Fold SRR1-like domain-containing protein.
Amino acid sequence: MATSAKLALDKHSQNENWTVVMPRRGKKRIQSRRHNTPEAEQQPWVPTELESDPEREAKLIQKMEFCIKKVESSRFYQNFLEQVENPEILDSFQRVLGFELKMPMVIYGIGSIESYETPRFQLSLAILMKRKFDWIGDIEVFDPILSATESRVLESLGCSVLSVNEQGRRRATKPTLFYMPHCEAGLYNNLLQVNWELELLNHMVLFGNSFEMYEFFSEIKNSIVVESSRHILAARKFADEYVIKTASDDYFAAFHDSSWHFFSPALDTELLLVKN
């Protein structure tokens, strides 16, 4: 039900420069969309198998329905809603929305929802947000390991599966919520780099790994790690971060060290800290 509020561990292995859960590939996707990623960055994508498996679909739908209900009835979710509905965070969403009525949600790096419970919890939270808040628009999803069966189930849950690997380089030409729980640093860095302009950064909301955590690790790790996180570290200076509380061990794996990030650079000079 829509709210009455009026508002106009990294995953476990790497695949195609993404940090994702261990792959289990499947079959065919029935719907896809292309968006405003520069053509040079778009990589056409299809699942390796040709057909979806109806039996696996049915089982996965049952698993997702169970997870959605479990999350919805949890103390974690109640804490999450209380945080989002806090006036300070609601005002941050309102600032990003501006005169728009809705902001689409783009989900990168969700992992295999068929093989692992953690991605199912992460997807469940995204779906519950869409159901709860009338200012969240369409949901688009991409992960290079998604199977055709998983793609079909995602679409049955009201999501679209992208037909290109954007490498996280979606320009926020309008208010956009990027939902990226436990992606690798390079993917967040790609997203920030392609949006490294005042107007675009002000159009973004990011749900993902804590940038404060990256700043901490940058002080003790080697220069390669720092290089892959340089836009993240620079964005810390004009980002408001709100840490997600996991509330119980059930949700620790899915949401530990996760935060909301809102970006509000006011001057071009703030963006000179990183050279593209």
